[in-house]
Design goal:
single chain; 262 residues; alpha/beta; Rossmann fold; 7-stranded mixed beta sheet; 12 helices; binds S-adenosylmethionine; SAM-dependent_MTases_sf
């Protein structure tokens, strides 16, 4: 149920409603109130397309306007659950950290699982600029203009409000605001069992790995959210792994997510 709420699986129609209304505004057309109310009759194919794509590969605009708490889709949430449960069962020491949290849903999910399984001590660290991505600075990130997408900018106050809605905003959630190249240099957390790298760019991915990889506990999980979708991200992972002689096998989660164990 929590996963369905975080993914907005109950509210797919609202994304289409907002998208439709914006289209009417952009094209100076009057909206049809019956279409707003009964969008399922007018756009049945699009609703089916959203429902048939639980891993969130298509229809970015309509999906985002439904305001899910996370964009990572069902397979990556399922996999994250398996990782948290494996860490707890195998007693891998360390906290959990997501670098690139957007609206907070994946971090909320990790915090909820700690409660569900009665873990009394681990913390969830949430690192983000809370103002979207930086403009591309490296050649490897050329033309990756994610900084121009207002949808990717979510304020710290909004993310904290999202945790509070689920009753999960407490002292076992720590926020790390700022650009990764600065914000991840602090000594806490000292040890990580799960690192979720979701910063899209070569530079962001490299900043995450450079600053945090050496804190991974043996047996921990490093997740790279954009490994399949963004070649620049994949290249950062390959460059980092080859520079550090890491050859632990990489496992594919879905069309974009991948992970390895440390
Ligand atoms: C694709 S979104 C993350 C999606 C999220 N994990 C989810 O569950 O839906 C990428 C996030 O990374 C953040 N980000 C990317 N590069 C960054 C950097 N260098 N420093 C700080 N934040 C960064 C952006 O602000 C944005 O919130």
């Amino acid at each position: 149920m929590l996963k369905r709420i975080l993914l907005n699986e109950f509210g797919a129609e609202n994304g289409l409603r907002i998208s439709y209304l914006l289209y009417c505004m952009d094209t100076s057309q009057p909206y049809n109130l019956d279409e707003v109310i009964n969008i399922h009759r007018y756009q049945a194919d699009k609703i089916a397309a959203l429902r048939d794509d639980p891993d969130g590969q298509h229809n970015y605009r309509e999906r985002m306007f439904g305001f899910p708490y996370t964009m990572i889709g069902r397979a990556r949430l399922d996999s994250l659950q398996t990782m948290v449960e494996t860490v707890l069962r195998e007693e891998i020491p360390g906290d959990f950290l997501e670098a690139g949290a957007w609206r907070g849903g994946a971090s909320i999910f990790m915090r909820a699982l700690l409660d569900l399984w009665g873990d009394p001590a681990r913390k969830v660290y949430v690192a983000d600029s809370f103002q979207g991505l930086p403009p591309p600075q490296l050649e490897q990130d050329e033309n990756l203009n994610f900084h121009l997408d207002p949808m990717l900018s979510v304020g710290l106050d909004v993310v904290q409000e999202h945790f509070a809605r689920f009753g999960l905003l407490d002292d076992r959630v720590a926020f790390m605001p700022g650009w990764f190249e600065d914000s991840l240099k602090v000594p806490e957390p000292r040890q990580l069992a799960i690192l979720r790298a979701d910063g899209d760019l070569y530079q962001s991915t490299m900043d995450i790995l450079d600053n945090l990889y050496h804190r991974m506990a043996p047996g921990g999980f490093v997740i790279i959210d954009d490994y399949g979708a963004i070649p620049a991200c994949r290249r950062a992972v390959e460059d980092f792994r080859s520079a550090h002689g890491i050859d632990n096998p990489i496992h594919t989660i879905d069309w974009t997510g991948a992970y390895w164990r440390t």
